């Protein structure tokens, strides 16, 4: 039977959205989210009860580490049966990394986990924080005619757009349109009403399955951004470094990289050592296809895995997750080409 009332847990990890100006001292201080109805009275209009949890200490977005993702995932699991949805307030700089990681770590998800934040604190004039917060809560509380969550995914809501968390990139450090989802349409758009793109929202096969957390992460991943003038010394240090189990190659266009002999030799050496090499494009929009150009075909012959249209943030989180689950590099390579949580546009 449909239940019209939802219980939402608002989790404040840190970030601009939760800062409030102290007019006596002229400084920004953390907001007390237990008083959220006083600061954002519009939330009283929803058929939802809102509880809050604040990380202590708060996490600056630039200081986010995988251990913070593990703590957040475990908190959601601990509170999962008590709430219908979760709103995670997070700094914008690493929000895409955190949302990507949680999308892989939370298995069997049947409830919304909506990340949001702001470019300006909630309490200042022209803030985007209040609108982002209100809409994120409304989406987290939304249910369909069957009483199921409208969006049982890990998402980011920002500037009227609900986007799949593992498809987002931060594209603007000043404007309110801070995030885009270049290769996946928005899951919902907030205007006069919230319009859901139900065709692409991922739904569980079993609405009554239990949530499990995959908290073991292997972070031995390096990222090499290909650029004109890159030197053999730099490439070798990153690609063949002893502390890396996997390397993400940020390549040109549809997955192209230099065809210079020294470059190919270094990649071949890394491949021979068993390293996992994944190819993602530097372009915001589009996909890796190593069969189009000769330079791309060389990478494919070396065993470089296509990241398809994955973002670097999502590719990194996926590698952390898969390597944490398996010591078999060949198995990880195989699963990197599979669409696990809607992160790439392949079946």
Describe the structure.
- The protein has helices at 36-39, 66-79, 95-105, 129-141, 232-239, 261-272, 294-301, 312-325, 329-336, and strands spanning 6-12, 19-22, 27-30, 48-54, 85-89, 106-107, 113-116, 154-158, 161-164, 169-170, 179-180, 188-190, 194-196, 212-213, 221-225, 246-251, 276-281, 305-306.
- It is an alpha/beta fold and 347 residues long.
- The protein has 2 domains: 6-213, 3-Layer(aba) Sandwich (Rossmann fold); 221-336, 3-Layer(aba) Sandwich (Rossmann fold).
- The strands form 5 sheets. Strands 4-1-5-7-8-9-12-13 form an 8-stranded mixed β-sheet, with helices on both faces. It has a 4-stranded parallel β-sheet with strand order 15-16-17-18, sandwiched between helices. A two-stranded antiparallel ribbon has the order 2-3.
- Helix 6 links the parallel strand 16 and strand 17.
- The chain is globular, with a radius of gyration of 21 Å.
- The mean pLDDT is 92.
Q: Descriptors for this entry?
A:
single chain, 347 residues, alpha/beta, Rossmann fold, eight-stranded mixed β-sheet, 9 helices, 27% helix, 21% strand
């Amino acid at each position: 039977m449909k239940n019209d009332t939802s219980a939402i847990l608002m989790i404040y990890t840190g970030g601009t959205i939760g800062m409030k100006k102290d007019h006596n001292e002229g400084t920004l201080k953390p907001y007390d989210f237990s008083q959220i109805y006083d600061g954002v009275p519009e939330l009283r209009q929803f058929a939802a009860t809102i509880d809050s949890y604040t990380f202590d200490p708060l996490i600056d977005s630039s200081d986010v580490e995988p251990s913070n993702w593990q703590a957040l995932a475990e908190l959601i699991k601990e509170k999962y049966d008590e709430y219908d949805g979760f709103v995670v307030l997070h700094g914008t700089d690493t929000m895409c990394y955190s949302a990507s990681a949680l999308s892989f770590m939370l298995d069997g998800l049947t409830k919304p986990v909506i990340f949001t934040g702001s470019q300006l604190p909630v309490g200042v004039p022209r803030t985007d924080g209040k609108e982002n917060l209100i809409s994120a809560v409304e989406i987290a509380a939304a249910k369909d005619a069957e009483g199921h969550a409208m969006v049982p995914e890990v998402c980011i809501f920002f500037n009227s757009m609900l986007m799949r968390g593992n498809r987002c990139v931060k594209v603007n450090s000043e404007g309110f349109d801070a995030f885009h989802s270049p290769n996946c349409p928005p899951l919902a758009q907030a205007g006069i009403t919230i319009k859901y793109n139900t065709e692409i929202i991922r739904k569980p096969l079993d609405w009554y399955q239990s949530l499990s957390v995959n908290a073991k992460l292997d972070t031995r991943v390096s990222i090499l951004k290909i650029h004109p003038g890159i030197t053999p010394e730099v490439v070798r240090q990153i690609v063949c470094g002893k502390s890396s189990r996997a390397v993400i190659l940020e390549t040109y266009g549809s997955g192209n990289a230099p065809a210079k002999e020294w470059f190919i030799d270094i990649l071949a050496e890394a491949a021979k050592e068993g390293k996992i090499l994944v190819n993602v494009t530097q372009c915001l929009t589009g996909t890796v296809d190593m069969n189009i150009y000769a330079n791309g075909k060389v990478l494919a012959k070396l065993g470089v895995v296509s990241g398809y249209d994955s973002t670097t943030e999502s590719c990194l989180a996926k590698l952390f997750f898969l390597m944490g689950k398996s010591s078999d590099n060949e198995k990880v390579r195989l699963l990197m080409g599979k669409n696990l949580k809607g992160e790439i546009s392949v079946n």
